[in-house]
């Protein structure tokens, strides 16, 4: 089974993916490492620009009969049996990315993306089996327990668990609002 773990930068994908793969006895795969190994990504500054169509094709073929947890904010492009979209209150996203030293513009773009569900919408456009999980205020272990309970219960789709529309005032200081 292929499980893709996606979400806005900083929501905890790597932490949760590693723990989830250990609990399930699955291999852990980083999209970024896979793309670099296969020559599907070009380093661009401290980022990697990945050809998502090539990623979908190559990862789909490489892992089709494997049990893997695929980690990365592009992992929902890979044909997966299940896509887990991790969500985190945009203010917490902002604080985590700030602590990582993200430049103001990049921080604002990602906080806004979390606010308006960008990754969730992309995931739903590509895959019917989407589990949305709110990680806000939860430990990585609690998040993994929630995912495992959904999988054990045979749940293939659960979306609509968060609504960040009330978060706007909290995150205004982090947004650029056209001032770039
Ligand atoms: N549930 C959690 N509670 C508190 N802190 C967490 C939680 N999950 C992850 N973190 C912390 O948040 C930071 C970001 O986590 P992580 O690298 O797993 O996120 P990510 O979504 O994989 O980020 P990126 O997309 O940039 O790779 C790390 O410092 C991690 O220790």
UniProtKB/TrEMBL annotation:
Q: What class of enzyme is it?
A: transferase
Give the EC number(s) under which this enzyme is classified: 2.7.4.3
Give the binding site residues for ATP: 10, 12-15, 100, 138
Could you tell me which residues belong to the region LID? 99-109
What highest taxon heads this organism's lineage? Archaea
Q: Does the keyword Transferase apply?
A: yes
Q: Name one GO biological process term.
A: ribosomal small subunit biogenesis
Instruction: Provide the GO MF annotations for this entry.
Output: AMP kinase activity; ATP binding; ATP hydrolysis activity
Question: Could you tell me which Pfam families the record lists for this protein?
Answer: AAA_18
Q: Which residue stretches belong to region NMP?
A: 30-50
Keywords attached to this Swiss-Prot or TrEMBL record, sorted alphabetically, are:
ATP-binding, Kinase, Nucleotide-binding, Ribosome biogenesis, rRNA processing, Transferase
The catalytic activity, as recorded, is: AMP + ATP = 2 ADP; ATP + H2O = ADP + phosphate + H(+)
Q: What does this protein do?
A: Broad-specificity nucleoside monophosphate (NMP) kinase that catalyzes the reversible transfer of the terminal phosphate group between nucleoside triphosphates and monophosphates. Has also ATPase activity. Involved in the late maturation steps of the 30S ribosomal particles, specifically 16S rRNA maturation. While NMP activity is not required for ribosome maturation, ATPase activity is. Associates transiently with small ribosomal subunit protein uS11. ATP hydrolysis breaks the interaction with uS11.
Q: Which family does it belong to?
A: Belongs to the adenylate kinase family. AK6 subfamily.
Instruction: Identify the PANTHER family for this entry.
Output: ADENYLATE KINASE ISOENZYME 6 (PTHR12595:SF0), POS9-ACTIVATING FACTOR FAP7-RELATED (PTHR12595)
What quaternary arrangement does the UniProt entry report?
Answer: Interacts with uS11. Not a structural component of 40S pre-ribosomes, but transiently interacts with them by binding to uS11.
UniProt protein name:
Putative adenylate kinase
Q: What is the lineage of its organism?
A: Archaea, Methanobacteriati, Methanobacteriota, Thermococci, Thermococcales
């Amino acid at each position: 089974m292929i499980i893709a773990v996606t979400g806005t930068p900083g929501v905890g994908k790597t932490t949760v993916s590693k723990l989830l793969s250990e609990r399930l006895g699955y291999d852990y795969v980083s999209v970024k490492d896979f793309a670099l190994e296969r020559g599907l990504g070009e380093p661009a500054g401290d980022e990697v620009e990945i050809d998502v169509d090539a990623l979908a094709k190559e990862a789909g073929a490489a892992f089709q009969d494997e049990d893997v947890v695929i980690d990365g904010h592009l992992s929902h492009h890979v044909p997966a049996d299940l896509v887990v979209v991790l969500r985190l209150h945009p203010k917490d996203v902002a604080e985590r990315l700030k602590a990582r030293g993200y430049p103001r513009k990049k921080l604002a773009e990602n906080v806004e993306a979390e606010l308006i569900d960008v990754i969730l919408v992309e995931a739903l456009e590509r895959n019917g089996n989407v589990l949305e999980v709110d990680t806000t205020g939860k430990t990585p272990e609690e998040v993994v327990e929630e995912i495992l309970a959904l999988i054990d219960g045979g749940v293939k789709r659960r979306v609509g668990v968060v609504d960040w529309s009330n978060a706007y005032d909290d995150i205004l200081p982090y947004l650029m609002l056209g001032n770039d």
